[in-house]
Write a structure and sequence with these properties.
Layout (H helix, E strand, L loop, with lengths): L4 H22 L3 E5 L3 H5 L4 E5 L5 E8 L10 E10 L2 E4 L11 E12 L2 E11 H10 L4 H10 L5 E3 L10 E5 L9 E6 H6 L3 E3 L2
Parallel strand pairs: 3-6
Antiparallel strand pairs: 1-2, 2-3, 4-5, 4-10, 6-7, 7-11, 8-9, 9-10
């Protein structure tokens, strides 16, 4: 197993060019600024949306399905945790150090030639609404942490009593096939859209 961190950074840079085109075309009331400094990156900010009239700022964390190029998955994985140097690290979804307002989920990423991305879908997920909705479903961070601890040796899908695994979501443990062994809350995009947690930009 090999970490794809370096190659992912290259692909993310290529994809960001396409995302910027979509932002400029579909977010006419906003000025978008891409940030590159490490402090913002660690705080969960890739892009800042600034409303042209009110000057309200929204911090955007871009997440892309770069492992599924030329495929259109109905789900997205929200990171709860992963392993680094044999220690468990908290994922980005509940990380209190993040100042993210929205996740820009890039899915259905298509390319005609390597690293030349031509189209994708962008779904904007309101982080606060998502966390509040999960809490209403009794899926608090503490509850999810207990699921993670009780099933830490699992590899694969874990159905939750709080979610319909077919139409809403489930947990997924990648213990054997990824070097960081991430544990993700996999949610259906249509489920997020139907509950006004997310909006489709394009």
């Amino acid at each position: 197993m090999k970490s794809k961190f370096t190659s992912d950074l290259k692909r993310e840079k290529q994809l960001s060019r396409l995302l910027d085109v979509y932002y400029q075309k579909h977010l006419v009331h906003y000025h978008t600024t891409r940030v590159h400094d490490l402090e913002n990156q660690l705080a969960g900010v890739d892009v800042v949306f600034i409303h042209r009239k009110t000057q309200d700022k929204f911090y955007i964390d871009e997440k892309a399905q770069l492992d599924y190029i030329n495929d259109d998955l109905p789900t997205f994985a929200f990171e709860l945790g992963y392993y680094k140097k044999n220690g468990f690290k908290e994922g980005w979804l509940f990380d209190q150090r993040k100042i993210t307002d929205f996740y820009a989920l890039a899915t259905a990423i298509y390319q005609d030639e390597p690293h030349v991305f031509t189209t994708c879908k962008i779904t904007l997920v309101n982080r606060e609404k998502l966390c509040s909705f999960l809490e209403q479903r009794k899926l608090t961070k503490a509850v999810l942490d207990s699921y993670l601890y009780e099933n830490k040796e699992l590899n694969g899908k874990l159905k939750l009593k709080e979610l319909n695994s077919r139409t809403e979501g489930y947990l997924y443990f990648s213990k054997n096939n990824k070097v960081e062994k991430p544990i993700n809350l996999v949610l259906k995009l249509d489920f997020l859209l139907a509950n006004a947690i997310a909006k489709r930009l394009v």
